Amino acid sequence: LTIMGNAGVEPNISPAENTAQQDSLFSMTDVFLISLITGLFTYWFFFRKKKEEVVPDLPKIQSVAAPVRDSSFIEKMKKTGRNIVVFYGSQTGTAEEFANRLSKDAHRYGLRGMAADPEEYDLSDLSRLSEIDKSLAVFCMATYGEGDPTDNAQDFYDWLQEADADLSGLRFAVFGLGNKTYEHFNAMGKYVDKRLEELGAQRVFELGLGDDDGNLEEDFITWREQFWPAVCEHFGVEATGEESSIRQYELVVHTDVNMNKVYTGEMGRLKSYENQKPPFDAKNPFLAQVTENRKLNEGGERHLMHLELDISNSKIRYESGDHVAVYPANDSSLVNQIGEILGTDLDTIMSLNNLDEESNKKHPFPCPTSYRTALTYYLDITNPPRTNVLYELAQYATDAGEQERLRKMASSAAEGKALYLSWVVEARRNILAILQDMPSLRPPIDHLCELLPRLQARYYSIASSSKVHPNAIHICAVTVEYETKTGRLNKGVATNWLKNKVPDENGSNPLVPMYVRKSQFRLPFKPSTPVIMIGPGTGIAPFVGFIQERAWLKQQGKEVGETVLYYGCRHEREDYLYREELARFHQEGVLTQLNVAFSRDQAEKVYVQHLLKKNKESVWKLVNEGNAHIYVCGDARNMARDVQNTFYEIVAEFGNMSQPQAVDYVKKLMTKGRYSLDVWS
């Protein structure tokens, strides 16, 4: 195409009044150009698909390569006799898990379902779903961040926005996964439900809204138990029997296997940790060396830490405000205890192969591998298991009372839901605790591995600027550790794993599998724009990067606007993070205001929102006259909400507005990208 572009430029062509010889030459050139363009177009037309699908020199990189839409989900459904497709938009695996459960449910009603990743198919085929008898599309859609689609649903979302397709033959239902502490609760589920109806599709059952701040599992079960009767009524079918345990994978034990073909913790390509190749992403993480790991707090029971990851030679690029994802490993003592309690040789090499040969998902995690590797790197063994896991495990309890208890907790009865909430969720019982507290429950380890969800990457706001640290990514985190109602000590998987990643004196640096995820949390385009940053606790992380960048811009001779920080911690002498760095930036004039709330250093608690109220006049002036950008990072449940309410009050008072007008003013700031959130619950 470059040749075509160059060939099309003819600055030396003579004008029409030149000689016949030149006219002739011009004609020959013209013919040559047309032939060349035609040839290139023909080559591109016939060979472009092959080019796209070729994966160079990596025979086992299938799971790492970008998904190729090589087949229509309609054709696949016809070929395999399916009539229900459950698409999932999933960031942490929960929506995928719910989709799998719904697709398995279908057999109870004489229907056949399949779970599908929208990233792998062309969703414009939805208009053809009516070609299949008793067909239905279900969408389990999680909302990520500030009302955004998950990564794997981005293309589907873009298509929905632009589509003018006629979906009048499509029957659908949507279950959304969200969190009420976030501003845009379940935005993706609501949008998909509304947009499909606008395109003419027929809703078979009402939109379900799951709330992860409450009890997402219960929300799903409640919706599901009403969803299936509605489907039965719509299609005129009846349940064929009780829910039964159907294995999705079969166990293959490898007694004589080449260990070079066994996965040892890689996320995608076999041996990718030994032979690293960019680009690095969720399925191909980079092994970064930890060059520094220091404790930030001077006292108190908690452990707050600053880590530095070396990304030299990785070609990884990041901007201030981006997130770093790390893949942690489970505590080896928990893994060993599960092995002991189930009487299993954890070093057995095995594969779990999908019984559905047509499925795109051949294994629940990379196989072949050992049980030890699966329980350490691939499976979530620390979160309370969901009800479907308890239901499947119940058959292995030899004590009738324990079996009944498990089945009750997995039921949709009010008593069962209450028992699950108290005994599993509120008591924070993980799978090991359940096995310990139910002595007769001893499932086969392969079935347990099939049922447990995948261990997910953990995301941290990057605490550095790439302008200052182009070859390093900094993390600020607090270790999670708490006692449960049963007296057990539960530890956060990632933070305790990171805590132990300390470089030794011999220069040996531990490794962390990581990749960068882009964010919308960005400094203003113009350095002269003022910024107001609010980030208590580890919410300070992205602002360390912001301040570093503003200092760098100032050094470059740029005009930098006011840089205002509102930070909070418990005690000045215990957990004032980055105290020296912040003091230096303030002294140098980069940080024009440093406002710190020490919540527990006096009788009455003082938080960041109290300091905002104290400085309300200057805050309003910066926002209203200075067009300042506001950034909030940290706890979504309380802090972010309280800060937002404080801004409503400030805007109402100084902008002479009513409460609804003030709310609208702040919402407009959000729409314009002048009020940004990076929060978690």
UniProtKB/TrEMBL annotation:
- Statement: the UniProt record of this protein carries the keyword Transmembrane: yes
Q: Which cofactor does it need?
A: FMN; FAD
The answer on whether this UniProt entry bears the keyword Nucleotide-binding reads: no
Q: GO terms for biological process?
A: response to hormone
Q: What is its EC number?
A: 1.6.2.4
Enumerate the InterPro entries for this protein. Answer: CysJ-like_FAD-binding, FAD-bd_FR_type, Flavdoxin-like, Flavodoxin/NO_synth, Flavoprot_Pyr_Nucl_cyt_Rdtase, Flavoprotein-like_sf, FNR_nucleotide-bd, NADPH_Cyt_P450_Rdtase_alpha
Report keywords, A-Z.
Endoplasmic reticulum, FAD, Flavoprotein, FMN, Membrane, NADP, Oxidoreductase, Transmembrane, Transmembrane helix
* Residue ranges occupied by any FAD-binding FR-type domain in the UniProt entry: 283-524
Residues annotated as transmembrane: 25-46
GO CC annotations on file: cytosol
- Pfam families the record matches: FAD_binding_1, Flavodoxin_1, NAD_binding_1
Flavodoxin-like domain boundaries: 84-228
Picking any one GO molecular function of the record gives: flavin adenine dinucleotide binding
Output the superkingdom of the source species.
Eukaryota
The name of this protein is NADPH--hemoprotein reductase
Q: Per the UniProt entry, what species is this protein from, by scientific name?
A: Sula dactylatra (Masked booby)
Q: Which gene encodes it?
A: Por
